[in-house]
C-alpha cells in the first residue's frame, strides 16, 4: 500500500504524507531566488502538499514574509489548501549563527503577533516551540501557547527537539499535535523513545532534514559548498566523517538503482514505511527536486527491502555530530 494522508493532531486536517521545509529558501544553504522559490511553492500546492514549514528565525523573518507573499498571491482558495507551521524561541542577530533561546510567555505572545503579521494570516495552523529553555518549566511554556489557541491566534501547538519526558509533561497541559525533530537514515536516535512516545500520545512526528541535509540524495559534493552554507561548519560534512558518510550514501545509491528509484526517494520511502505516523518535510528550492521527493509517497517498500536498507544504516552508522556547537542551544535530544 502506498502512503496516504497522515494525521496531524485532532484539530488539523490529515495532510499529504510529505510536507515542504521552507528554510533553505531564505537562509543557511547558500544563495536563493525568491521567484524560483515561489514557483516551487506553487508546484507543491498543485501536487497536493499541505504542510508548509517555516520559522521566525529563518532569514530573520524573511522566510515567513516569503510564505506570506505566496499565500496572499493565491488568495483564500490557496490558503484553504495549506497547513502553515511556524515556530518561536530562537533569537539571533543578523549575520550570525549563534543564538539564545527565549521561552518566556511575554516573548511567546510577541513572537506570535509578529509571525501573524509576516505571514499575513489570521491564525497560525501549527505553532511550535522551536527550542527549549530548560530554565522555563515546560508547563509554563505550553500554558502560554494554549492561551494563543483559546484566543484563536493558533489552531494547534507543537514542540521541537524535546525529550519524550518533556513531551509527556507538555501533553498533560494541552494536546501536542506534533513533535518535530531531525530524523533520517543518518539520525535514528528518535526511534529509542521519542517516536514511541508520539505513537502513545497520538502526536504526529514531523521529521526535518529527512535527507540528511541533502547528503542522502547522493548529489551533494561536500567539497563544493557555497559561501554562507552552514553545512561547511557541520561536523557531519567535514573530513573523515564526510568521507565515511559518503560511503554509506554510495551503498544507498546502489540499492536505489537496483529498485529503480533515486537515493532521495528511497530514503523518504524508508521513513514512510518505517513510521506510519511520521511526516517528513524535505526542503528544496527547485521544482525538479520537489517532484522527485514527492514521488516517494507512491513507493511501497517490502519488509525485505527495509531490512536491507537498515543493514547499511544501523543506528549510529553516520559519523560526525549533526550540529556545530552553537546549533545545540535548546536541543534536549543531543546525541
CATH superfamily: NADP-dependent oxidoreductase domain
Total count of helical runs of at least 4 residues: 10
**Largest β-sheet summary:** 8 strands, parallel
Residues in helix, %: 25-40%
- Give the H and E element order: EHEHEEEHEHEHEHEHHEHH
Which class best fits the helix and strand makeup?
alpha/beta
Query: What's the CATH class label?
Result: Alpha Beta
Per the CATH scheme, the topology name is TIM Barrel
Strand proportion = 5-15%
Q: Spans with pLDDT under 50 lasting ≥5 residues?
A: none
Euclidean distance between termini CA atoms:
34 Å
Number of domains: 1
For the record, the CATH architecture stands as Alpha-Beta Barrel
What would the principal axes of the Cα set say about the shape?
A: globular
Q: Mean pLDDT score, rounded?
A: 91
Strand order of the largest sheet: 1-2-3-6-7-8-9-10
Task: Please give the radius of gyration in angstroms.
Answer: 19 Å
Compute the number of strand runs: 10
Amino acid at each position: 500500500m502506498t502512503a496516504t494522508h497522515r494525521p496531524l493532531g485532532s484539530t488539523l486536517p490529515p495532510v499529504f504524507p510529505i510536507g515542504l521545509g521552507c528554510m533553505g529558501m531564505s537562509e543557511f544553504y547558500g544563495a536563493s531566488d525568491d521567484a524560483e522559490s515561489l514557483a516551487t511553492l506553487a508546484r507543491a500546492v498543485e501536487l497536493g502538499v499541505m504542510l508548509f514549514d517555516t520559522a521566525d528565525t529563518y532569514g530573520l523573518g524573511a522566510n515567513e514574509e516569503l510564505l506570506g507573499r505566496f499565500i496572499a498571491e493565491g488568495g483564500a482558495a490557496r490558503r484553504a489548501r495549506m497547513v502553515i507551521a511556524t515556530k518561536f524561541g530562537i533569537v539571533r542577530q543578523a549575520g550570525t549563527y549563534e543564538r539564545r533561546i527565549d521561552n518566556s510567555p511575554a516573548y511567546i505572545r510577541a513572537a506570535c503577533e509578529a509571525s501573524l503579521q509576516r505571514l499575513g494570516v489570521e491564525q497560525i495552523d501549527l505553532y511550535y516551540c522551536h527550542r527549549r529553555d530548560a530554565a522555563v518549566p515546560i508547563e509554563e511554556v505550553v500554558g502560554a501557547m494554549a492561551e494563543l489557541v483559546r484566543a484563536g491566534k493558533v489552531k494547534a501547538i507543537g514542540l521541537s527537539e524535546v525529550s519524550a519526558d518533556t513531551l509527556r509533561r507538555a501533553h498533560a497541559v494541552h494536546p501536542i499535535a506534533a513533535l518535530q525533530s531531525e530524523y533520517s537514515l543518518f539520525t535514528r536516535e528518535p526511534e529509542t523513545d521519542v517516536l514511541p512516545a508520539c505513537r502513545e500520545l497520538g502526536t504526529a512526528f514531523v521529521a526535518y532534514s529527512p535527507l540528511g541535509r541533502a547528503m542522502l540524495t547522493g548529489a551533494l559534493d561536500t567539497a563544493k559548498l557555497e559561501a554562507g552554507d552552514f553545512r561547511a561548519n557541520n561536523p557531519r560534512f567535514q573530513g573523515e566523517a564526510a568521507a565515511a558518510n559518503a560511503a554509506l550514501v554510495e551503498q544507498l545509491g546502489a540499492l536505489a538503482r537496483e529498485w529503480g528509484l533515486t537515493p532521495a526517494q528511497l530514503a523518504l520511502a524508508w521513513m514512510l514505511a518505517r513510521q506510519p505516523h511520521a511526516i517528513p518535510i524535505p526542503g528544496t528550492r527547485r521544482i525538479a527536486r520537489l517532484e522527485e521527493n514527492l514521488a516517494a509517497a507512491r513507493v511501497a517498500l517490502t519488509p525485505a527491502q527495509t531490512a536491507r536498507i537498515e543493514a547499511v544504516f544501523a543506528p549510529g552508522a553516520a559519523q560526525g555530530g549533526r550540529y556545530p556547537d552553537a546549533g545545540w542551544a535548546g536541543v534536549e535530544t543531543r546525541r
